[in-house]
Structures are given as C-alpha cells and as structure tokens.
Amino acid sequence: MTKKTAKKSETLTEEEYLRLRREKERHDRLYHQEDNPEISDAEYDDRRRRIKDYEDKHGVKGSSSLALASKAKGASRAKNSHTVKGRAPLPRKGKRVGAAPLKGFRKVRHSEPMYSLSNVFSPEELEEFVARLQKFLRLDEVPALSAEPKVDGLSITLRYEDGALSQAATRGDGKVGEDVTANAKHISEIPQTLKGGNIPKVLEVRGEVYMTRADFARLNAAQEAAGDKIFANPRNAAAGSLRQLDDSITAKRPLRFFAFGWGDHSRPLADTFTVARKRLKKLGFKTLTDVLLSNSTQELREYHKRLEDARADTDYDMDGIVYKVDRLEWWKRLGAVAGEPRWATAHKFAAEIAESEILDIGIQVGRLGTLTPVAHLKPVNVGGVVVSRATLHNPSEVAAKDIRVGDRVRLQRAGDVIPQVLEVVSEKRKAGSKPWKFPSFCPCEIKSAVRIQDNGKRAECSGGRDCAEQGRARIIHFASRKALDIDGLGEKSIEELWERGLIRTPADLFTLEERDGKDAPPLAEWDGWGELSARNLFNAINAKKSPPLERVIYGLGMPMIGEVAAYDLALRWSSLSALRGVAEAAGRSELSDEWHALLAVEGFAEKVARALCGWFADADNLLLVAALEGLLSPVAPKAGAGILSGKTVVFTGTLERMSRDEAKSRAKALGAKVGSAVSSQTDLVVAGPGAGKKAREAAERGIETIDEEAWLALLGDG
Ligand code: AMP
C-alpha cells in the first residue's frame, strides 16, 4: 500500500537525505520527461516533505530559500531548493490523454506569479500547517481559515482594465502563460465587463475554467458520434477546449468559470478573503458556494469530510479542499516558498481505486538506461480518468506483488497521478498463469544484456551509448518542456527522425534543416508531414538557438543535475565552456580550486560534483558539448533583481517584529543570499537585541550593520 505520511519524528542521516533528494530528482524526471511516474502524488509529496524537514532541521540552504520560479515551462523554480514542488503547474494536469501539445499561443508574462499549492493529506498534516502559520506569524490562536472546494479544471488569469476584459492567460509555468483572450471571450461565465460600482482601474481575477460532469458526458458522446477525440476527464476536456488555436472550437464547448483569487490590482478588494470573494461575486463572477470560515481545525476537518462524501453528487470534479488564511494582510507577511504560498494549502481527497486486467507487461527504457516495467491494462476509469498503463516500478516490485500477465489488479490514483498497481486480486487469477520474468535483454535493437542491481530495485541496459533507446530518450529529454522546450518536437517525431537515421544526438536537431532532403527525402514529403509542418518544426528548432543556459545544462541530462542544480550552475559559470573547464579541472583533482568551487554551489554534495565531473570526462559528452557550443548561443541567467540582489545578509539577535524565518524569506525575496556566519562575503548584518559575536565581528570587519527598525524601513514596512 502507498505510504502517505512520513514518520513524524523521523531523523534522516545525511546519506538518506541525499538519497531522497536524488530519488526526488529521478521522480521529477520520470514524471516530466519520461511520462512514466513510478510513485503516486502522495508518495512524491511525502518525499518532498521529508527532504524539507531535514533541510529545515539542519539549516540546509534550499527549500526555505526558494522563491524564484523554476519548474521551467513546467515549473516555478526555486533556486537551490530540492523541495521545489517540481511537478506542479501545467504539466500534471495537461499530460494525460487529450492534452494536445500546443503551438502558436502568444506567451504572456504574469504580473504576479500564479502559484501552485502545497498539499496536506491528513488531519495531522492540517494541524501542522496551522501550527506553522502560528509560528511564522507568532500567533497564540489559530488564524481564521477560509475553506472552499478545489475545483479540478484549468487555472487562468483574467485582466480587466477600466472594467473591461483585456487579457486572459493560462498559468503556464506560473511566470509565463499563454494568451487565451480570444478563447476566454466565448465563456459566458467570464464577464466581458465588470459589474457594479467602485470598479478598480486594474484587476486581474484568477480562477478555474472547468466543465461540469454532465456537460463532459454530453461532449464526449458527441465527439464519439462524430468520430472525434474522446476526452479522459472533465479537466482534460476543459483544458483541451480552452486551449484551441481556433477559438471558434472553444465557442462550441460548454466551459464555465469559478473565480477564487486575484493577481495585479490597483486597489485591494477587501481586508479578508471572505469579503474579497463577495466582492468578486458583485463584480459579476461565479464564486464557490459551499464554503466555510473557521478557526477550528475540528470544524475544518468535518467540512473536508462532508465535501469528500458529497463528491459523487457534486456536478463538477473537485480534488480536495483549499484552506486560505482569511486575513489578507497576513498573505504578504507569509509570502511564498517554492512557488507555493505559505498562506494556503490544499487538503487532498483520498485516492480512488479501481480494478482492471493486465494485458501485457512492457519495458520502458529511460535516457540513463533504467528499465521500467509497465503494465498495459484493459482501459478502466479510475476516479474519472481512463487509464490503460501503469508503472510497475522495478523488477523487485513485480516480484514482491507477484504481478502476472492476465491478472486482475487493483489500481489506485492518488490525486492526479498515473496509477499504481496496489495488488493482485488473487482469487481472480487465471488457472495456469505463470510468474512474470524480467527480460534478460533490453528491448533496444542490439539487445544488450540487462543488469539487475540493488536487489532488484533497479534494472538497466548495459548497452550504454550503443543502446538506441537511450539515445532517443536523451534527445526526447533535451527537447522536452523543462529543457529546450522545442514546440511540436515530441516523442513521435523524434522517433521518426531517429528511425530515418537523421538524429543521433541533441546537436543533430540544429543541423536538420540544412541537411533536409540530402540523405533522405525532405521532411515535407514524409507520411503525415507536409510543407507546413516541416516548416513549423524547423522554425520551432531555430527559435531555440539562444536558449537559457540552465535549460541546456538540464537538457544534457547529466546524472543528479536537475533543474535547480542546472540553474545554479548556469548562474555561477555563465557558459558551457566555463562549466566544462571547471568540471574537467575538478575531475582531475579534489584538491583543486575548481573542485571546491563546485562544492560551494548550494546543495552540491560531493556525489553531485563527482557525477558532474564524470559526465564531462566522457568523450562523447565532450563532443556533444563542443557541437552545441558551435550551434547555440545560450543565455546565462542574471542574479536576482531585488534591492538586495547579489548581497549576502546575516541575521543575528532576536527580531521582535518578525520571526527569523520570515526575515530570511523576505531577504531572499529581495534577491539576497542569507548567510549563517559573518565572513568577508557578508554585505549586511541585521542585528536585533541580544546580538553578540556576529555583530562584533561585523563591526571589526567594518560590515554595514543595521537594527530591526532600519531593516523594516528597508523592506518598506517601517
Ligand atoms: P496545484 O496545481 O495542485 O498545485 O493546485 C493549485 C491550483 O489549484 C491553483 O493554481 C488553482 O488553479 C487550483 N484551484 C482550484 N480550486 C481552487 C481554489 N478554490 N482556490 C485556489 N486554487 C484553486
């Protein structure tokens, strides 16, 4: 069974912590790049939380610092954090059946980030959430929380200028979304102009576009009758219907809208969320109705249970309850961490379970050679999603559960995940069925031997560079959303290009156009292609010739280098050749300055540094880097742009008006790094009453030192 919650007082060793971090990166990769998650959302969140607990306990810089926006196109990115909820924004929801890849929408930079939400899964975790709020805000009582359903649809933001709808955009990665103004104008529940008096000059209203279950069923019936695509669930149908380049299609779809938030605004809507919700209603929006305002966790729990029980009878899909601190003044103080506001959380509903039959078990090859068994299932509806595949994780998992082809199995979908096989329904096992054996050879063309490691927890192809499946997976990773994000270059096209021998490494993508028609018929003449689609593909590739450096680094798929690490490396070394130089020198000697420079990157343990050096020690990788350097002009990220940008701040003594956590997070939000000790790197010391050694050291070194008053003035809170 899925373990949903971590042991409360778990004490991780450093090694366990590092392992968890690696695992998390791997699961991010499996989810986003390989479309093949091995664990449920609940398990993923559990790991995330254990990592964060460790980091909090040991003062590891990272999770609590975060605020930039990662999760690259899939991610609001939190620098240095390894607990970024890297699987949130668009992708989770957009990835299943029915989520067509989209080209052609204009990108819109959000004036304020569109957040994702942290999760709690149990009453205990709700208590912990509340306790954290109290600690952060230094409150003795539980703050009033506003609770409302979490609608399962597609998040959008609507900008109104002088009361008129001027722009609608999807959430995208939380920082940049897609312009869907033309589409949104067809949704009757989205007002074209705001109603009532006292209309703010600028107001961005945020909420969820969704489809009711009844409308969804009708739409699917009509689609089926017309031989068109069937949507897996109301959320996919809503997303697929809104994000149509031809907005006349959107016009025909039964979309609705609930408002539950706001972004940029020229004037505050209210002092509390409850009143703000009423204001939104007066302005002409539909808001959620069965809501609760309470400062009793008992009451909140009962409310959660009542709505969970009523789920089947509700005419729209909901996947949990959202709790928000009611008093808006506190939102600013609480801020956000890792692209998630501290002032809200989602209390998810329990997993949904269904039964189906295993038709076959296949093997999926990852770009690092990991072989994952995948169950092909008789399609079944699990909590509203039609499922036909489920990961079986690794050889030992299949053996432990004794999963066989032909078995009936129970499947679980927790929240929003590709399902897990919970167990075999043994009484329904067919007579004569045989235990499944992990194949001895990789499905790749050269049929390399399979290496089983870690007591069956890991299987890998021994073919290395010769395994075509891995080669393809590496290019798929390079072109994927969080890496180069090449529009329209999905798995299928990459496979086709590979089959025809046109690509062997990511660099080959950038010479495709000039080679087109030389060694094979021109792309435009291939089955299923054409002038326009060939042109679109070349344009999409050409558009990525000056990509963000961190995406290139991430896209190279070095072991242990996830998005966050890639960003940190790009920030520190600004070019591929600089990074290569450092990695090569560091690889030669662990006494070198370069080795120490690598370890100085936040969150870089020796193993990570070694993995990086190992990657750069491989001749093929160096060739690839050299080729990419000749073809691309990557752009390095700039350090934070706040008023404390590039500065290192150290806090000492007790601050009376805010907790240390809040002070640190505010400093980071302004672009600062927060140091724990005064050193030559320190630019500013904030000293509250009781400051001792650190303040003295600062004075000796002549480092600027300010008191709490001046700190508040600097924040603009004074
Ligand atoms: P997640 O994407 O799972 O992190 O959840 C965050 C998303 O939940 C937000 O971006 C909203 O689109 C969505 N959501 C649905 N209902 C609500 C609600 N009542 N309040 C806030 N967010 C909601």
Structure description:
This protein has 718 residues and is α+β, with helices and mostly antiparallel strands. The protein folds into 6 domains: 3-82, Helix hairpin bin (Helix Hairpins, Orthogonal Bundle), CATH 1.10.287; 118-347, D-amino Acid Aminotransferase, Chain A, domain 1; 354-461, OB fold (Dihydrolipoamide Acetyltransferase, E2P) (Beta Barrel), CATH 2.40.50.140; 467-542, 5' to 3' exonuclease, C-terminal subdomain (DNA polymerase, domain 1, Orthogonal Bundle); 549-631, Orthogonal Bundle (DNA polymerase, domain 1), CATH 1.10.150.20; 648-715, Rossmann fold (3-Layer(aba) Sandwich). Helices cover 35% and strands 19% of the residues. It has 25 helices and 24 strands. The strands form 7 sheets. The chain has a 5-stranded mixed sheet. A 5-stranded antiparallel sheet has the order 16-15-14-17-18. The longest helix is centred in the N-terminal third of the chain and has 19 residues, at 14-32. Residues 1-8, 32-36 and 62-102 have low confidence and may be disordered. Bound molecules: adenosine monophosphate. Adenosine monophosphate binds next to strand 3 and strand 8. Residues 88, 116-117, 148, 150-151, 155, 171, 208, 260-261, 288, 322, 346 line the site of adenosine monophosphate (AMP).
